UniProtKB/TrEMBL annotation, chains A, B:
Residues annotated for substrate binding in this entry: 111
Active-site annotation: 53
Gene: truA
Gene source species: Bacillus timonensis
GO MF term set: RNA binding; tRNA pseudouridine(38-40) synthase activity
Start and end residues of each Pseudouridine synthase I TruA alpha/beta domain: 8-105, 144-246
The protein's Enzyme Commission number: 5.4.99.12
PANTHER family reported in the protein's UniProt record: PSEUDOURIDYLATE SYNTHASE, TRNA PSEUDOURIDINE SYNTHASE-LIKE 1
Upper lineage: Bacteria, Bacillati, Bacillota, Bacilli, Bacillales
Protein family according to the UniProt entry: Belongs to the tRNA pseudouridine synthase TruA family.
GO biological process per UniProt: tRNA pseudouridine synthesis
Protein name: tRNA pseudouridine synthase A
Keywords assigned: Isomerase, tRNA processing
Database matches in NCBIfam families: hisT_truA
């Protein structure tokens, strides 16, 4: 029995999220289906670094699984990609220590959120960016973002239907970069609560558009109340960009 | 009655091409359906600059139609976009001379073809580029392309199932540009035969990969035989980029 770690990417458009759900197409079920094919029908359980929601994309999701098959890693990659639909790709496969755990061993995660800033919508971007055609005060957004960096109780930035008790997380970095008509926000932290990145983006948009003041971030954090923060930005602008197992250093 | 000219873009992925076909989703039928909605169920015929095939995209397709409704052009754009699915967008609407004809008045057209050159496929590019993960000799491709520029009988680069008799066309320009992992080929000409751009791309790829010599373009043209040229490159890498009604000047 060997433990394998895979880095996978997926276009979230056609998935009801990562996690298995009855009668829905999910990333996990497609992956487990491909593995089942390779193991003569035996179910092989996959563990991911975390879930992603419907329409959310991934460039660097990480999963692990155990298998008795002795196939070289390049063979695993080829075999899995030949069995997977073309909106999921295995980018790499490596043999890891049997103690490695794709979820418990995560040291940091990087998410990106892409905003399409042009006044005109773009048919080619509609599933891959959130169209936000209004002017934004980037300086105010950066000021607000700086107040979120660090270790805080992010209750106000967490969907209320979560089961997690401890809502203290550390954000190491929030970066904003304009590329042509896109504004790309990067978030690196030791962990993110349910919908946390999307709620932060929604709140930063309210700051950028003047509906909220940047300095309000402090009182929103302190209030520990979801209703104080902004709307949850749509899933299709969000990318699980990278998962770090060795910690994150700027 | 007024004649309107619209520039439209569409993501070809979910369409069985531009032209109406029974029981298939096409760009024309979606556009005519939206217009019918605005005209109390009356059918409004749309004329395009030309057809595009299944999975082929458009950034600057041009159509015209006649309507008795007196709506300002911005109102037309808004109304049509609110009635259209989000993979078709009306980019602009203008009132034109009643003699304007979206097809007969075309002076030149520009197509682009996008190749994804990375060894690894990309889930986000799979519907928008043709994945070609092999090394290409760009100089040989440029040499071959130069032999196609000018006025020629393009019978060898035309799908055999066409009904067009006169296969003489003028290509003004073929350009190749490397952008990160993409190679983008641009084609401007006074008109293109059925599948002509895709067959030229397929043939240029055979030159770039060493299967054909660049100088063979001359004999392929002279042979007037489809079987002499290369394979038809897939539709999903192709974009109708712009339609010129005033002629084209470099």
């Amino acid at each position: 029995m060997r433990r394998y770690k895979c880095i996978i990417s997926y276009d979230g458009t056609q998935f009801s999220g990562y996690q298995v759900q009855p009668n829905k197409r999910t990333v996990q079920s497609d992956l487990e289906h491909a593995l089942q094919n390779m193991h003569k029908g035996e179910h092989i359980k996959i563990v991911a670094s975390g879930r992603t929601d419907a329409t959310v994309h991934a460039l660097g999701q990480v999963v692990h699984f155990d298998s008795p098959l002795s196939i070289p890693v390049e063979g695993w990659k080829k075999a899995l990609n030949s069995l997977l639909p073309d909106d999921i790709r295995v980018r790499s496969v490596e043999i890891v220590d049997p103690e490695f755990h794709a979820r418990f061993d995560v040291k940091a995660k990087e998410y990106r959120y892409r905003l399409w800033m042009s006044e005109e919508p773009c048919v080619f971007k509609r599933q891959y960016t959130h169209h936000y055609p209004y002017p934004l005060n980037l300086n105010a957004m950066k000021e607000a973002a700086a107040l979120l960096v660090g270790t805080h109780d992010f209750t106000s930035f967490c969907a209320s239907k979560t089961e997690v008790q401890d809502k203290v997380r550390t954000i190491y970095l929030i970066k904003m970069e304009k590329q042509d008509n896109e504004l790309i926000l990067s978030f690196i932290g030791n962990g993110f609560l349910y919908n946390m990145v999307r709620i932060i983006v929604g709140t930063l948009l309210e700051v950028g558009s003047g509906q909220k003041e940047a300095k309000m971030m402090t009182s929103i954090l302190a209030g520990k109340d979801r209703s104080l923060a902004g709307k949850t930005a749509p899933g299709h602008g969000l990318y699980l960009y990278q998962v770090y197992y060795e910690g994150w250093q700027e």
